[in-house]
Design goal:
- The complex is a heterodimer of chains A (about 400) and B (about 90).
- Chain A is α/β, with parallel strands linked by helices and about 400 residues long.
- Chain A is built from 14 helices and 14 strands.
- Chain A has 2 domains: about 240 residues, Thiolase/Chalcone synthase (Peroxisomal Thiolase, Chain A, domain 1), CATH 3.40.47; about 150 residues, Thiolase/Chalcone synthase (Peroxisomal Thiolase, Chain A, domain 1, 3-Layer(aba) Sandwich), CATH 3.40.47.
- In chain A, helix 3 packs parallel to helix 7 and helix 11 crosses helix 12.
- Chain B has one domain: ACP-like (Non-ribosomal Peptide Synthetase Peptidyl Carrier Protein, Chain A, Orthogonal Bundle).
- Chain B is globular, with a radius of gyration of 12 Å.
- The chains are: A alpha/beta (about 400), B mainly alpha (about 90).
- Chain B: It comes from Pseudooctadecabacter jejudonensis.
Chain lengths: ~400, ~90
């Protein structure tokens, strides 16, 4: 079977506008969550988020591009540029036909929808800009990456709520492994920090008003983030033949469905996905040194996730480290797994385990080594990244150092 | 600003050209405006003059709105303003 490796990574999120600054913030345990700077924030009960700050779209795109690029597309294109620059790949001829894009997003162009619903419903306008549809569609980001980089193979978008980008990366992995493509640009993006986007989440009453404190007994909910994470997945021999710097091997992937509840997570569903990823990667439980948790900071997720990890890993669960970087960058929903995979790369390449910040008090139901508050140096050779979506759709990716 | 100047300005912005290059006899194709650029120009014209432009992108020829040249568009806009503003 063909092997798949990562040869490029890019991101923009609340912690930084590229991979280096994001990893530095994770090492330092810095929090990117702050007061939301969006229209009508005073009408929101939840006023915090992991917003991308210091960002001016005009610094990156011209007027014509902005009329077609929603914020989630802009984030994607910037992250993809970084990833492809690192990989040192450009696409033409046969390689172009054998390369594609599969990205995750949950809300797609939600800012565009929000602004234009506001224009027609609240402001009473009877006319909207002609590009609203191509700007808001969920596949806009994937399509623009394909157009910009001449990727003419399989491209599509995956929408599975909070697991979207893990599912997307799982597809990219499977497509290269199975021979359908040689290079895939993959990951995910989200930008739903607008009035309607936050208001909808507020309704579920799972949001914290002050901080995301995963696994801490004092946790009181999740905090939304925004941004993108994009990777270059490449067939191993192809990467080796051109002397590429290989960041890690994508060792395995598994997805399962709880088939039980539309919002409540299931220990069995999560556990089967974790065990499935280990099996697919031919890893033993004791090979895994670090898990990037889904770790949303809600009561339901964190205890279910810890129970699933304890079940799958048995005694080794007490030896491995598991942290939730959502405490720093917030929950990027459809883009979250992609940004979180960066923490796995940092563990494998730099030997630094990103912490779970905001940790105040142990919870007996989350009695694992959650790397509280301070990053830790450790040598690990295999990692997992968990994503468990509303709708009971679970996706776990295993990386191995190479 | 005259209607002629305003329409030419809208088209010039779309074509990323100076307004002096957007002359009456030029077609949109001459100016490098594609189908997306055309619908965006029509939107800008509707917004600028507060009129409705009868234009169907599926069949541009079938519309009453003549887009064969810059001059034709200006004339059509003038007529729409007259008709729709009463």
């Amino acid at each position: 079977m063909r092997r798949v490796v990562i040869t490029g990574a890019g991101t923009i999120n609340a912690l930084g506008h590229d991979v280096a600054s994001t990893l530095e913030a994770m090492r330092e345990g810095r929090c990117g969550i702050g007061r939301l700077d969006i229209r009508d924030v005073d009408r929101l009960a939840v006023k915090i988020g992991g917003q991308v700050t210091g960002y001016d779209e005009h610094a990156h795109f011209n007027r014509q591009q902005i009329s077609l690029y929603d914020r989630f597309t802009q984030f994607t294109l910037l992250a993809a540029d970084q990833a492809l620059a690192q990989a040192g790949l450009s696409f033409s001829g046969a390689l172009s036909d054998r390369s594609g894009v599969v990205l995750g997003t949950s809300g797609g162009g939600l800012n565009t929808q929000d602004e234009n619903y506001r224009a027609v419903y609240e402001d009473g306008k009877n006319r909207v800009h002609p590009f609203i549809v191509p700007k808001l569609m969920n596949n806009a980001a994937a399509s623009h990456v394909s157009m910009q980089h001449n990727l003419r193979g399989p491209s599509f978008t995956v929408a599975t709520a909070c697991a979207s980008s893990n599912h997307a990366m799982g597809q990219a992995f499977a497509m290269i492994r199975g021979g359908m493509a040689d290079v895939m640009i993959t990951g995910g993006s989200e930008s739903m920090l607008c009035f309607g986007g936050v208001k909808a989440w507020e309704g579920l009453r799972v949001m914290s008003k002050d901080a995301c404190r995963p696994f801490s007994a004092t946790r009181n909910g999740m905090v939304q983030g925004e941004g993108a994470g994009v990777f270059v997945f490449e067939e191993y021999d192809h990467a080796r033949a051109r002397g590429a710097d290989i960041l890690a091997e994508v060792a395995g992937f598994a997805m399962t469905s709880d088939a039980s509840d539309i919002v409540t997570p299931s220990k069995q569903g999560a556990g089967r996905a974790i065990a499935g990823a280990l099996h697919d990667a031919k890893l033993n439980a004791w090979d895994v040194g670090y898990i990037n948790a889904h770790g949303t900071g809600t009561a339901a997720n964190d205890k279910t996730e810890c129970a699933a990890v304890a079940d799958v890993f048995g005694a080794h669960a007490d030896d491995l480290m598991i942290s939730s970087t959502k405490s720093m960058h917030g929950h990027l929903i459809g883009g979250t797994g992609a940004v979180e995979l960066l923490a796995c790369l940092m563990a494998l390449r730099d030997g630094v385990i990103a912490p779970t910040i905001g940790y105040e008090e142990p919870d007996p139901e989350c009695a694992l080594d959650v790397v509280p508050n301070i990053a830790r140096d450790a040598k690990v050779t295999a990692t997992l990244s968990n994503a468990f979506a509303f709708g009971g759709l679970n996706a776990v990716i295993a990386l191995r150092s190479i | 600003m005259t209607i002629d100047t305003e329409v030419r300005q809208i088209i010039a912005e779309q074509a990323l050209l100076d307004i002096s290059d957007v002359t009456a006899e030029k077609s949109l194709e001459d100016l490098g405006i594609d189908s997306l650029g055309l619908v965006e120009s029509i939107f800008a014209i509707e917004e600028a003059f507060d009129i409705n432009v009868p234009f169907n992108a599926n069949d541009p020829q079938a519309s009453d709105f003549d887009i064969s040249s810059v001059g034709a568009i200006v004339k059509a806009v003038e007529k729409l303003i007259q008709d729709q503003r009463g």
